[in-house]
Amino acid sequence: MNRRQFVWTAAGAATSVHIPDVLAAGKYDLIVKGGRVIDPSRKLDAIADVAIANGRVAAIEANVAADADDMIDARGKLVVPGLIDIHTHAARVKDGPGLCLADGVTGLIDAGSQGADRIGETIAVARSAPQPCRVLINIGRAGILPDGDTMDLSRADVGAAREAIGRNRDMIAGVKARLSRDVAGANDFEVLRRAQEAASAFHLPVMIHMGQTVSPLAKLLALLKPGDIVTHMFAPPPNSIIDDDGHILPEVMAARRRGVRFDLGNGRTGHLRWDMAERVLMAGFLPDTFSTDWTPEGRTAQVIDFPNVMSKFLMLSMSINQVIACATINASHAFPLFRSRGTLKAGATADVAVLELREGTFEFEDNYGNKRTGRQRLFPSATVLAGKRVPPRA
Question: CA–CA separation, 14 vs 288, rounded Å?
Fold first, then answer.
């Protein structure tokens, strides 16, 4: 065995990986040493070293013998691709992206914090973020409002949204439509139609905030196109993705078949209830992606951090490989910005999250005050962004 080839066993089959020769000066920049490397994009689950050079993954071997400028001891921990959080409100605050980065999040989306009137505020934070960060523009031109973003339908201003996207095409990755009855009320269908109208000129995806809508979910789903995203997929009735008999709505299945993605969107209010999550998972309808719906307030309750959100689904009997896939390779397909990320394949950008999987007794809370106990919880341990070690959070 040498540094150009490593043989591991995954899913019962021997697989060979050929590592391109990117080692130029006789040593690597960084080696993440001795962790359990889980990379769902390669079906890899093995104890190994991850060697990094020039900001890219250079080798994955059982024991990298070369020297390195820096080393992270990952023995007893998980080494996974950097986490990608496609639904946050991290750009609401200047230090939001940095706080997420220290938790292992090496790519993120601010999903609709602001509309056309003040989109420059979130874009400024996104531009200054240490990791790749983009924003979804809220179709409600005033952004998130306590009395409802688009309860006044005139706020769903297609012209204003298009003008803002045109000025900031490099930073706006899609359009967000929040459709709950206390956000859009009876306007929900027209709000979504207008969001699609704004997005269509730029071939952008639309993300909808579902759950407790006035319109039936089937009516809303009919407006979604391939690449669009349904977030808060575990929201309880009215108008959830599952019927009273525990069956996934046929319109939900049809939407997935035509390329609509379904996302967790943990959040803190009205989005996640344990019994709904159990019923949906028992029906065999797994999330495409995990996201936190991160806010500064969520750091102290329910959300905490992305690894904590992932841990809830270990408690709900998803496997560790399924959980990591939802936070890495699956999420990388949602937006072009992340297409080269979410993987530890040779030559990929070296974004890495080192996580500690602790065994014990851990309490998790849904959005309705219901608490459950799990036996495992993931904790952030170290982050590597484009080959550079990130300072740990305070």
Answer: 28
Q: Where are the domains of the chain?
A: 5-80+382-390, 81-338
pLDDT at 393: 76
To the nearest whole percent, how much of the chain has pLDDT over 90?
92
Q: What mean pLDDT do residues 188-207 have? A: 98
Separation CA 252–CA 287 (nearest Å):
12
Could you please state the CATH topology (level 3) that the domain comprising 81-338 is classified under.
TIM Barrel (3.20.20)
Q: What is the CA angle 83-296-382, rounded to 5? A: 35
pLDDT at residue 26 in the model: 62
- HEC string of 153-196 equals HHHECHHHHHHHHHHCCCCEEEEEEECCCCCCHHHHHHHHHHHH
**Integer Cα distance of 306 and 299 in angstroms:** 10
**pLDDT tier for residue 3 given thresholds of 50, 70 and 90:** very low
Type of residue numbered 24: A
Q: What integer best gives the mean pLDDT of the chain?
A: 93
> Average pLDDT for residues 233-260, to the nearest whole number?
96
- What value, to the nearest 5°, has the Cα angle with vertex 344 and ends 343 and 350? 100
Half-sphere CA count of 389, side-chain side, radius 13 A: 17
Euclidean distance between CA atoms 125 and 121, whole angstroms = 7
- Could you report how far apart the first and last alpha carbons of the chain are, in Å? 40
* Domain over 5-80+382-390 is classified CATH 3.30.200.20: no
Of 105, 161, 165, 164, the residue nearest 129 (C-alpha): 105
